[in-house]
Amino acid sequence: MSGDDDQQLRVSKIQNGTVIDHITGGQALNVLAILGIDGTSGESVSVAMNMPSDRLGKKDIVKVEGRELSQNEVDVLSLIAPAASINIVRDYDVVEKHRVERPSVVVGVLECPNHNCITTEDEPVQSRFAVVDDGVRCEYCDTIIRDELPAHILAD
Amino acid sequence: MRHDHIISAKQLSRADIEEVLDHAADIAEDPAAFADRHANTLLGMLFFEPSTRTKMSFMTAMKRLGGDIVDMGSVESSSVKKGESLADTVRVVEGYADALVLRHPMEGSAKMASEFVDVPLVNAGDGAGQHPTQTLLDLYTIRENAGFDDLTIGIMGDLKYGRTVHSLAHALTNVDARQHFVSPESLQLPRSVRYDLHQEGAEVREHTGLEEVLPELDVLYVTRIQRERFPDESEYREVAGQYQIDSDTLESAKDDLTVMHPLPRVDEIAHDVDATDHAKYFQQAHNGVPVRMALLDLILGGEA
């Protein structure tokens, strides 16, 4: 059995939905956190972790049945998996395929972890983070978030 | 001055700083020449936390320019007590005043408020964030006493929550300065300030003891170790004593060392320092008036 077939067996094809490939090895569970998937809402999800990859050494793959990602979700995903590719699948065929791009700002998708930041108050303002070298930075209070980013995703 | 709002020291270039400081020096030399500069101008004072020096010096500055102030008063006596948002408060008061000065306990409040108003808004301190007008008067005092060339400055105390420190550290990247930060490990500079200093290529060193660096310093900027930041009193007492200076401490300092403090002090500078030539903190506080006159004049459309 070839390596590709072996991989195919481990992660089966989906009919409609999204395949996120080339996720930085070990980040798949954080990707699920970004997508708000914890297994309770009934979506069919396949996860492969630490698969061999020419480009990344090790990569993760996430397949989500019946779900296409919003731009906000892709923006946040790009911060923890900058090499990821998004494949939109309809009726078993990949109809769209694109790499994620790191945005310069993410608006309204992360909550500032600084409890003394004005964006955490009941004010008519959305959170706004500038994307910096290795994380994001609140444009109001300057707080920098790095590794702990998935913990601060705002609930829909 | 090309800025509509003064929110952070980070927005101030060397040219901006020198424009304000030069104008402040002109005002200090002949304040009477500016006495009617802004007659009929009203400055809106929005102070959501207590302030003595900053508030009074803004009020004095506006009045010495011929204008007047409208004051929100204490939070307890304002609509804030009824639950009004900051965004609504500033939108209402901008209809009464030609410029606004805001002090607020939350970081980012001045930036957010500035997005809701068209009149100039000046940040007079936002939580542990920034205090850019304090920095301008600090820089004025530093330039008067030690200059901006080949400057070695020590900044000591609560570096983590001290907004005056954050603003000053940013601003000093515009001049030829080596910055030494002296604090307990628990009160070292926050990640965001370190990030900016690194990005700016600033020459920075960190210490836990003043004695390591005191003899090199041209300026020592002392801030209060804030008792309320420590989880328990014994931990505070353990470190607080290490960050107090008196005239004996300064024996190993240069003769022309300038000692500064944004005030209020508690016990971090002993009163016996006041009588020495090192003590410049009252001069520093007095400089708040011409510097804030200069800044207000520039943002209200005056020409330097």
UniProtKB/TrEMBL annotation, chain A:
Pfam family, one: PyrI_C
Binding sites annotated in the UniProt record for Zn(2+): C112, C117, C138, C141
GO CC annotations, alphabetized: aspartate carbamoyltransferase complex
Domain called Aspartate carbamoyltransferase regulatory subunit N-terminal: residue spans: 9-101
Organism: Haloarcula limicola
GO biological process, one term: 'de novo' pyrimidine nucleobase biosynthetic process
Protein name in UniProt: Aspartate carbamoyltransferase regulatory chain
InterPro entries, alphabetized: Asp_carbamoyltransf_reg_N, Asp_carbamoylTrfase_reg, Asp_carbamoyltrfase_reg_C, Asp_carbatrfase_reg_C_sf, Asp_carbatrfase_reg_N_sf
UniProt keyword annotation of Calcium present: no
Keyword Cytoplasm attached: no
PANTHER family the UniProt entry points to: ASPARTATE CARBAMOYLTRANSFERASE REGULATORY CHAIN
Known function: Involved in allosteric regulation of aspartate carbamoyltransferase.
GO MF term set: metal ion binding; transferase activity
Needed cofactors: Zn(2+)
The encoding gene: pyrI
Family stated for the protein in its record: Belongs to the PyrI family.
Source organism superkingdom: Archaea
Boundaries of every Aspartate carbamoyltransferase regulatory subunit C-terminal domain copy: 106-147
Keywords, comma-separated and alphabetical: Metal-binding, Pyrimidine biosynthesis, Transferase, Zinc
Cofactor: how bound: Binds 1 zinc ion per subunit.
From TrEMBL, chain B:
Catalytic activity: carbamoyl phosphate + L-aspartate = N-carbamoyl-L-aspartate + phosphate + H(+)
Lineage: Archaea, Methanobacteriati, Methanobacteriota, Stenosarchaea group, Halobacteria
Entry binding sites for L-aspartate: K82, R163, R224
Binding residues annotated for carbamoyl phosphate, in chain numbering: R53, T54, R103, H131, Q134, L263, P264
Pfam families given in the database record: OTCace, OTCace_N
Span of domain Aspartate/ornithine carbamoyltransferase Asp/Orn-binding: 150-298
EC number, as in UniProt: 2.1.3.2
Pathway the protein contributes to: Pyrimidine metabolism; UMP biosynthesis via de novo pathway; (S)-dihydroorotate from bicarbonate: step 2/3
Superkingdom of origin organism: Archaea
Organism, scientific name: Haloarcula limicola
PROSITE patterns, A to Z: CARBAMOYLTRANSFERASE
Keyword NADP: no
Function: Catalyzes the condensation of carbamoyl phosphate and aspartate to form carbamoyl aspartate and inorganic phosphate, the committed step in the de novo pyrimidine nucleotide biosynthesis pathway.
Name of the featured protein: Aspartate carbamoyltransferase
